[in-house]
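Lab meeting notes turned into a lecture example. A postdoc, R.K., suggested we walk through two folding results consecutively so the class can see how the record format repeats. The first protein's sequence and structure tokens come next.
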Amino acid sequence: MNIQNRISEILATEAAAIAAVRVTPAFEQAVITLRDSTGKVITAGMGKAGHVARKFASTLCSTGTPAHYLHPGEAAHGDLGIVEPGDCVVAFSTSGKTQEVIDMLGKSRALGIGTIISITSHPESELRDLSDIVVDMGIITEPCTHGLTPSASIAVMLAISDALALVLMDLKQFSRAEFGRRHHGGYLGVQSRTDPEG
């Protein structure tokens, strides 16, 4: 195996998967819903999708939208108590069939959750049926030799979540100074206090 060629092939496959995403009205509906939500934004996902959900919540927090990651497995053991009427859930699942996520969303409905937004790929899944807004990742082929390791799908999921967060930030006219008040530490904290013109 030519290692460099294989790495280039994987990078090209992931980039192509992101480029192939069709931006539909559902993307805009998701951003508007997040902007107008009167409750918290709760993100959820299992496995690799859970890491993206956690990162999305973190990005939202630093860009002016309070959010909290809820582990679907822990939700079954009391953590679902964070859900209140009016909250908005953003659920991440490539297959849309992850049972812990499905169970969490069903129970959230019973607690009066406001809106469920899903970011998913597979065209037939219970997650789509449970969602008010479906942000479609498209059909994705993983570059893994076995076609199993989540990589291209996770790259797409991450790119979509970043796009939603950044457009939401723009809609809120979230300033550089406001970013600095929430992200005051480290290199970015210093950058936020530096005049970009000077």
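The second example is placed directly after the first for contrast:
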Amino acid sequence: MDLSGRIIERAIANGGSVTSAEAQALGASREWLARRANDGWLERMGHSIYVLPGADSLWTATLAAACHRLGAVVSHESAAEIHRMPGLRRGLLVVSVPIRRSNRYPGLVVHQKTDLSVEQLITERGLPVTTPARTIIDMAQVLGPKRLAKLVDGTVAQGLTSYEVLLTLFDHLARRGKPGTKSLRAVLKDRGAVPASPTTVLEERMFELMERSGLPTPTVQFSAPWLAATNGRVDFAYPEQRLVIEGDSRRWHQLADAFLTDRERDNLAQLAGWRVLRFTWWDIEERPKYVVSLIRQALSSAGNGGEV
């Protein structure tokens, strides 16, 4: 296959675009790329991205290329535009990637997210895009209360999501200190949707210890698939590493029923292929290094993406 064919093949694989670095790796010189752009064989976008003429659009093609290169998903303003959600700027290029992956791509804003799951994604225009509900939660981090309220109400009015769906996802993802949590909680409360308290005091101490120690941010109040029949949740989870972290309250576990229930839950997790680490209040307060060390070991042993 000649050089032109290789460039076309790579651009098609990327969704219609190719970076200058990719083209040069295939054998194209800067001068060759400049000539092809002048001839109209390629369209230049920015200083290092080229798009095939006839691609869906420069905007969509660039998002597709970034998703392909980074393993990213379309999010924030870009997801809102794809969903035609009201009241936000158009034409922005924004994606999200899992933590510790490359977070640079020419002309794009790249966020890092550790709590994205497949349930929060949908395919639109051939691209992986955050759902309307997840997009609102992401936008809560960057919008003021009034604009956030308009976004929520407008999106619900268009039938793209509902207050109930948004509340369920919010209750799943909310945690103390997460940007936008306070603002979105207030919006939902004003509309009669009252989130449950996301953490106990023990869980707050546990989260603070993990955050302070530089561990990857876990998903809080994770909806465990093996507990789906009971809508059960676990305190913290690292879904990619299939690891659960639970806090055992001394007062709560004076009750024999609760002790037995937790062991049943742990057995179900094991059968589903997940590991469970349990820590008591005494562990967290008196031997925090032990807690952090054990979590690090569990993440590292999980392999890809779990090294800390």
